[in-house]
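Researcher: Here's the sequence for the chain we discussed earlier.
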Amino acid sequence: MYDGLFTAFRHAGNRPTYHGEHRTAATVDVRSSLLVFACCIILLASLLTSPATRGHKRWFTIGRNVFAIFIGSVILLVNFGHGWETSMVHTKVQYKAGTSQELDVNVGVYIGLRGVNITMQGREPEKIRENVNFNEQFLWSPSWEQGQQFYGPHAGQINQEFREAQYRGVPFPILWVAEYFTMDGEDIRWGRSYRRAGYVVYALLWFSFSTWVLANVLLFLVIELASYCAIITGLGLLLANFLYWLLRWGPSLQIPLADTVLVFSFGWCYWATMVMGILCSVVGVTLLVYNYYWPENTVKFLHDCGRPKRNSAVKKVVGATPDTVLASRSSSILQHVRKRRISISSESRKHLSKSLPTKTKPLSTEDENKNIDKSRTRGTSTAAIELTSVSTKDRIPLTDPDTVEYFI
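Model: Thanks. This is the structure I predict for it:
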């Protein structure tokens, strides 16, 4: 019974079901997709915590977090992306070596810092009865070594991957394009050129990313240092653009393919790095200038924006003078002494009496001693307060003579 149940509809008897290999071309870059997903998770986490911030500061915090995460995610994407130089043509080309059959295809080449990505999509699959959709990647990292020439065990990584692709039977147009990056002699050194430029830019991008993270941390501690880090980040990105353009020495890469030519131009990674470099530099310089001329307003804008007003003990008196401020403080102290029934020395009482205006009646010694005796009979503890005299030169200078701030 069980044998008939598990072997039903099987042509090979009791053998298990076996499906052949189904190879498909890569549709997306997995590493870039993971980076985008991670940045989106961080952004979502910051948005979920934004309701804890009150007032208008919530929107300012959201904008600051979005801007910081956007700059950092772009730096990571251009570091791992394959869009520093691109080229795409549409032509009729020989599909496989050893055959004269030609197909109408689109061939695209995408050069990154770590390697080159070559795609081939057919427009007439009915001619060969298969789906022509290939995506091959040839890397010169993580070893970053040039290696020996040709395709031996001591050759470079891209040379070894090219030989492996030949064994796998990769279509002829892809091998034709990839071979230009494996040759290393005379002026045909495009592989060496892109590998060296990629290594230098790769290091600069990681340096810029670390300084950008440091700038966001220092923004809550020292604004001046945060602006310096933002400027360094922008300069590092712009330097990466310049070195990538400079280190690609030799003649420009042009690959003839059938009746067309693959001509390369700077891709989205190159221009995104330039835009982010300019943006970080402008933000850093602006923050530095504002912090130099208006430090208090800069702190309020970055840290106290939208903070709800609290009841402060600070009061403003219009038209006040230092003498009136001192008199107000002395009157407050005397009221506190009467209320708490605290014994004070005669010198302190004289000093407070001198500071009071003429219309204020000073506290007499007899009344104060009576209050002290009453508090002692009731069992109330007393404390002695020694008040030091404050001279005029020790007072805080007033920036605005018409407005005086004092604490009660």
